[in-house]
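Continuing the batch. This is chain 6 of the set; chains 1 through 5 are on the previous pages. Same settings as before, nothing changed between runs. Recording input and output for traceability.
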Amino acid sequence: MQRYIIIRLFQAVLALIGVSIIVFTLVRITGSPLDVLAPADATEEDLRRVAALWGFDKPLWEQYILFVGNALQLDFGPSIKFQGQSAMGLIGDAIPNSLQLAGFAMFVSVLMAVPIGVVSAVKKGTPIDMIGKIIALLGQSLPPFWLGIVLIWIFSVNLGWLPVSGKGGFTHIILPGVALGWFSVAAFMRLTRSAMLNVLDSEYVKFARIKGTAEWKVIWKHALKNAAIPPLTLFGIIAGIMVTGVVTLETVFAWPGIGQLALTSVNARDYSVVQGLVILISAMFITINLIVDILYAYIDPRVRYGGGRG
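Output for chain 6:
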């Protein structure tokens, strides 16, 4: 088990190094931040002075080493767009809001998808199963941003039950949380149903029924536990996607998270904030999947002895 964890940690570190190189390179392809920092009538001497002040006059390899060293200390430098504020300070203010939205969406997804998936598998071929399939079809067909606009039109504009946008009380998170989690409900439900159908036909489930074990125990304790491995794998992937996928939803609902900050920073060529956002989001994505890999190995010993999932 220790060897398996060490291998996964090493792979996570390599992935982060790769991300740091890619983001460092790509943000510099978009254009020079000197166009933002310096006034339109700046002379060549002014440009050189500003470049030296921000470190853009150094060779790229030296800029990268400084970037990595500072990133390890969670120091991404001052913001170019929001002068007087640090990039990490801006990111630190935005990330909790995005995590709150993503966490609520994930909670809604699991709370709805697992019971629907289990019941659909148990009631295979019945109208209940058909309803579950329709939910899955709609969930995977409707873009979250489009669903968000429709939810605003129904529950905010027409019915007036929920606020249109912004962050405030609990009611403000309901519409963006449901819109963000809807796709995940479909994915979780389909995978849970498929895994449960495979498990319900297994010999140990039949044996448990022959022994006279209560049906609810057979389904919710024995079968669901062994059917949880595929959904658990998907949970790690979707949890990371939700953290990164809030960008469009935050724009639709004017939610003050990393999506709004990323859009503003990219348009302003704010290297410090963009690099910090990508690095931290990637680190969260990789960490979530690392945790899921370890949990996966605990649930299924074949993974740690076989060396991986793939």
